[in-house]
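As a warm-up, study this chain.
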Amino acid sequence: MLAHNRYFGPDSQQKDIAVKLYETAAKLPLICPHGHVDPNLFADPNYSFGTPVDLLLIPDHYIFRMLYSQGIKLEELGIPRKDGGPVETDHRKIWQTFANHFYLFRGTPTGMWLAHEFEEVFGVKEKLHGQTAQAIYDQIADCLKTPEMQPRRMFERFNIEVLCTTDAATDTLDIHKTIRASGWKGNIRPTFRPDAVVNLGTEGWRENINRLSAVSGIAVNDYPDYIQALEQRRAYFKSMGAAATDHAVLAPYTERLSKDETRSIFYSALRGEVLPDDAQRFSGHMLIEMARMSCEDGLVMQLHPGSLRNHNPAIFANFGRDMGADIPVATEYTHNLKALLDEYGRDPRLTLVLFTLDETTYTRELAPLAGHYPAVKLGPPWWFHDSWNGMARFFDQVMETAGLYNTAGFNDDTRAFPSIPARHDIWRRASANWLAGLVVRGMIDMDDAQEMIVDLAYRLAKNVYKL
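Now compare it with the structure written out below.
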């Protein structure tokens, strides 16, 4: 059974205050401004998640990367191969393997999320292990057959006010159109993700440019055409309710190139002859261009640097990208972002939400940048740091310099739809615990804390993303 006061610190005075603050935030609607939930879930009112393995294990790299680290092959977990090669298809057997190794998740964010999901979403009261595996599989499978487990019903039960998906710049957004046309009132919005057409080293970049031409109706034969096509797509996304763009880069490098340089590099890329240094410079230039476009169209700009993607070449070759083999690298912001901030850091029309996988930058770079530039806001702890301890470090290292109101609240950043309430719940508990510590120390009073917990749980994300 989940304890009501779980995760709060051992000091009884602080714990009592944290519980009161948490109760203020616990029932607030969920604002989900950034994530990777598949919008197809909401297009069909009778959508079925399939088996417990289909829902909880196969799509979730947080789970199968841990199992892989202990020598369990992805084929044994039913993860589809790119070449269509054989994988385990007996989902009860896969679930048994998962249950036998569930102890691996003790003390991890994934273990905390799953404990919440099992009890609060599926009504499972027993611990998952080898002996309880099949009974729990049956219980979850039976739940998934009920109308309450259809995604639209779950969206409403989770009290989600708005959920933003992440969509390629070349996406037609037909699924979003279907959701709108259905008459269902759930607020599902797209997010413009242009990485596949902006990062020149992306596999299949030339084919992506052809798709950009097709969906925009603008033949992309040179750099001005390219910019026009991107602006057209952004306008279309905004017409479909998009509030933000999202950009993933290894390093947040920015550089303003001349017109001649941009045209030359882009033309070389079209011919398949671009050099690695030119590709990086072009991506840096395009981040500045995206900031310029955000000033003009009002879309919030999110920047997610610092992940060396597909670090394991065998996993990438056999299973593709986003399969748990992305590894953080050291990241620098002060020099890398200067060209962008020189042009737009003072512009009141720009909101630039920065994320990091390098916690050493919190106090040294990110908090001072956000505490100075009007355009900059700090996103919450992300990916490897979306954890109880990661949140505590974020509060301790960022808030004194940046201030609470230069941060962007919380986003769940998940593909695993049923985990959304669990992720928000941990953030709300971590926020309450931090604020309670400030109250105990006399740094803020209880009235301030009551305002701040609502901001952290709800208002900051709603306001920063203009939702």
